[in-house]
Amino acid sequence: RNLEAAAGVSMTVGIQERLLMKGFYIKTGLSFNQNFHRYETALDGSLNNKYSSRQSIYSGYAYEQFALDVEFHHINAWSYLGTNRESFEHAEELSVMLAKHYSLALGHTNSGSVFRANATDSNVRLIDERSSLVYAKIGIRY
Question: Residue 50's Cα: distance from chain center in Å?
Fold first, then answer.
């Protein structure tokens, strides 16, 4: 895609746990990026994005060795030709600490275009048989 450079700024704001219920957190984020490409279009003919913005919200709850985390992102992208694309990403994860340095997590993620092909109907779904991904991971932390 001939990306030569990129620059961005981001900000995250959260509410301290002591102001909420113990073990609960919530935060939101906003980012803005500018890309610098050699060409307005990629080799495959798709449009390169000049600007993008991501609006995010994160939340979670931890109790003893268990934790539940959720996040949602809305992404805007503008090409060099001025076209706008909107997409979304979300993830949910349940994790458990098995020992001091080991954890196990099960999660789900989905992403896609905000709108269907007709450009008016919402495409945002919690679960989509075509794009959802279910995963498991083992964590080792020292």
Answer: 19
Backbone angles phi, psi at 124, to 5 degrees: -75, 120
Find the farthest-apart pair of alpha carbons in the chain and give their distance in angstroms, rounded.
53
**Secondary structure class of 141 (helix, strand, coil):** coil
For position 5, what pLDDT does the model report?
A: 96
Mean pLDDT by 10 residues, the chain (142 residues): 90 86 93 94 90 97 96 97 94 95 96 89 89 95 89
CA distance 139 to 90: 21
**pTM for the complete prediction?**
0.84
Q: In whole angstroms, what is the distance from residue 112 CA to residue 130 CA?
A: 10
Secondary structure element (H or E) that encloses residue 112, with its range = strand 102-113
18/119 Cα distance (integer angstroms): 43
Residue 94, SS3 per DSSP:
strand
Question: Which tokens belong to 115?
Answer: 């709108």
pLDDT of residue 119: 82
Which structure tokens are listed for 141?
Answer: 């932390």
Dist. CA 15–CA 133, nearest whole Å: 30
